[in-house]
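re: that chain from earlier
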Amino acid sequence: MTILGVRVHALTWEAFEAQAADFVRSGQAHQVVTINPEFIMAAQHDPAFARVLAAADLALADGWGLLWAARRFGKPLPTRITGSDGVPRLAALAAREGWRVFLLGAGPGIAEQAANVLRARHPTLQIVGCFGGSPRPDEEEAIVARITAARPHVLFVAYGAPNQDLWIARTQPRLQIPLAMGVGGSLDFIAGVRRRAPAWLQRLHLEWLFRLAQEPRRWRRQLALPRFVWAVLRA
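^ sequence. v structure.
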């Protein structure tokens, strides 16, 4: 289905994991994006970002606002599939299947901390690379060379939107990673440098408020939420 012109796939967790396995088995390049209301509102005025979202092989519904909007449009989505939950689940799947994983982005040392946590949970997990770097063009060739040498099946990129998604789209023709996914702050949560909202707040759909309390500088980004609600109501 589409929400305000942005395509979103209606998947359960089981269907997502099956699709991820298909991507890896194919050996072909695929990009996964995690759509939330901020993505949708950004796409309204950023044509390059909108094109990347439209071209992605899989667009996951990351955000309660999308489930609400889908119900308003008469096409309910089965569940919310977040990057923060998706990374641990895909790591578990990678450990079972023998996939190689590369962690890119987040703050200095955070990818390494996240890797240590994931390895402790899944001793057979093959994390073949961790690197911070940045999405700046002057670092791109060196990062591409580093990832290419590691030959991962799965690449998690934590540069934040839209940088991470634009970076993946720009480099995938050279990288050819079977599953490359932008994961925002997921590595921070896994590493323990940032707390995720408690489950009860998530159930109340107030995860955004908890994160805003932790990162007050996000208030401008959070203005996308009321704009999203208004746009859906008008549509």
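The two ends are 14 Å apart (CA to CA).
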